[in-house]
Amino acid sequence: MKTLNLYLVRHGQTYYNIFNKLQGWSNSPLTQKGIDGAKDIGQRLSKVPFAGAFCSDTGRAISTAEIILDANQVSQTNKPHSAPYFREEFYGYFEGTDINQAWYQAAGPHGLKSIGDIVEKYSFDTAKDFLKEADPFSMAEDHTEYWQRVDQGFELINSDPSLHDGDNVLVISHGNTLLSLMDRYANGRYDLSERPANGSLTRIKLVDGKIEVVDYNK
Fold first, then answer.
1. Global pTM value
2. What DSSP line would sit under 43-65, residue for residue?
3. Fewer CB within a 10 Å sphere, N or C end of the chain?
4. How many whole angstroms separate alpha carbon 202 and alpha carbon 210?
5. Which residues fall in the annotated binding site for substrate?
6. Is residue 84 part of a domain?
7. Which pLDDT tens digit goes with each residue over 40-73?
8. At what angle do helices 124-134 and 143-158 cross, to 10 degrees?
C-alpha cells in the first residue's frame, strides 16, 4: 500500500478573479495580491519536504507553484510538473464571460438562477452538464469528460516512480476543481457554498490511488 499526502493549493488571485470572469482553460496573470498570497502560503509550507510538485499548464498555476517552491527550505523539488490533466473545468463558449451571467444561462432552462441553485438542488456534476447544454458550441466539459481528464492527473501522481509511501506532494489547483473534489469525496463534511480562497490549502491523501479528504480551505 502506498499513501501520498497531497497539498492542494488554489492558485493566487488573478485579474479575471477580480473581474468575476470564468477562467477555466483561459488564463489571466496573477495580481500583486495574488503574488503576495502565493508567497504567504509558500511561507506556511516552507518546512514541508515535497517529493514532487504538479500543476496545470496555465500560467497562473505555474507561477503559483514556482513561488511556493522558491520559498521552500527543505525540498529538492524546485520545478513543477505541469500537465493539462490538472486544468480547471473547461467552460467552452463561456470562457472569459461574467460568472453570474454564464451560470444564469445554464440554470435558467431548469427553472433556476445560479450555480448555487444548481448545486443545492443537484450537484457540481449536474452544473457541468447544464453548462454544456447551454453552450452553443457544446464544447464545455460535462461531468464525464471532466472527471476522465482530472482522474488522469491523479493517476499520473500515483504512478510516478519517484514518489514513495508517505511522500508529500504539492499540487496547484483551481476553485471549481477543489469544490468538485469536495463534492465528490468529502461526504458532505463541508459547506461548499463557501468557495476556496485564492492561496488556500486543501489536503487529501492518495491511498493506492484512491482519494481521502483530510481538510479543506485552510
1. 0.97
2. HHTTTS-EEEEEE-SSHHHHHHH
3. N
4. 16
5. 10-17, 60, 88-91
6. yes
7. 999 999 999 999 999 999 999 999 999 999 999 9
8. 130
Kind plus residue range of the DSSP H or E element containing 207: strand 201-207
The number of C-alpha atoms within 13 Å of 78 and in the hemisphere containing its C-beta is 3
Short-list 151, 112, 68, CA closest to 126:
112
Write out the three cell numbers for 169: 506532494
What is the H or E stretch that residue 205 is in? Answer: strand 201-207
CATH of the domain at 85: 3.40.50.1240
Measured between alpha carbons, how far is residue 190 from residues 36, 153, 158, 186, 206 in Å?
Answer: 27, 24, 26, 7, 20
Residue 72 covered by a domain: yes
45, three cell numbers: 509550507
Contact criterion met (CB below 8 Å) for 67 and 39: yes
Report the domain count for the chain: 1
Q: Give the active site residues.
A: 11, 88
Per-residue pLDDT tens digits for 121-178:
999 999 999 999 999 999 999 999 999 999 999 999 999 999 999 999 999 999 999 9
Q: How many residues does the chain have?
A: 218
